[in-house]
Amino acid sequence: MSTLDSALWLVRHGFSVFPADHPGAGQCTGIGRGHDPETCTDRGKHPCVPFTRVHTLDERQVHRWFDGQLRNVAVAVGACAGPGGARLLVVDSDRPGAIENAASAFGHRHTPTMRVHTAKGAHDYYWAPAGAQLGNGLGQLRGKFDGDVRGSRGYVIGPGSVHATGTVYELADPEQPPASAPAWLVTALQPSAQQPPRGAASAPARGSGPLLALVRVVLESPQGARNNRLYWAACRAFEHCRSGQLEPRAVASALADAATHAGLPEAEARKTITSAYRRGAR
């Protein structure tokens, strides 16, 4: 199935799409501040448009984007609506069986749903309740699940696309629609009292001015610049830690919450923060 066919299949099933970089192109076609297409080595995933605003369910636009164009197709998760206003939630497993193992760890069985096989594992598509506050954070899944989740501000590479390794993303069963997200999963992903969705702002609100300003930098990051801004903010924050103004764990937690709220996957955010911390330690 070509990316054009895949994109058409997706929009006909209610999934809003947009074009992303294809690893077969001469250089990265992704956009965003802080992103250099000529030196990009993370091929096949960067959006070619500002996806939070530019995505479509229009088949004519799909043809303009993908007919004769070497592009991967991506799904704007936050733009997809299901029955009764349900919101799309995609669970991204980094290895086969990851979500099944996580369900078992919480005392439940995995709920079969629309699944796309990826280079490392799978994307499981669910409809989450309209009122659930779900972003890209792992919540209580942290430490129990090898992967990430994509909620209201995220996107995933769709079926028919090509991974940098050459693996093609494939639907496990084209007849299987997204199931309702199981209650245990929705509960596990809800921000706890210790980690509210904007919890990065809650810690500095208790009197930490420098951290509050840096959190705002991360929260207001545009797509394409979020990782670079997070790294910069983390480096500055850990400088304040060395002077005794801030506590490292509070900094890491606050910035991670801000980054996931801004749209970064939690694992990527924490990796960037750890890198900044190690830089400061050196």
What does this structure look like?
- With 282 residues, the chain is α+β, with helices and mostly antiparallel strands.
- The protein has two domains: 3-189, 2-Layer Sandwich (Prim-pol fold), CATH 3.30.2250; 199-281, no CATH class.
- It is 34% helix and 13% strand.
- Strands 3, 4, 5, 6, 8 and 9 form a six-stranded mixed beta sheet that branches. Strands 1-2-7 form a three-stranded antiparallel beta sheet, with helices on one face.
- A hairpin with a 4-residue loop joins strand 4 (114-117) and strand 5 (122-128).
- Helix 7 (226-242) runs antiparallel to helix 8 (248-262) and helix 7 crosses helix 9.
- The model is unreliable at 193-207 (pLDDT under 50).
Percent in helix: 25-40%
Reading the helices and strands in chain order gives HEHEEHEEEEEEHHHHHH
If you consult CATH, what is the topology of the largest domain? Prim-pol fold
Rg for CA atoms:
19 Å
The main pleated sheet reads as: 6 strands, mixed
Number of domains: 2
Strand content: 5-15%
The overall strand count is 9
Structural class: alpha+beta
The unreliable regions are: 193-207
Straight-line N-to-C gap: 49 Å
Mean of all residue-level pLDDT scores: 86
Per DSSP, the total helix count is 9
Principal-axes geometry comes out as globular
Determine and state the CATH class of the largest domain: Alpha Beta
Label the CATH architecture of the largest domain.
2-Layer Sandwich
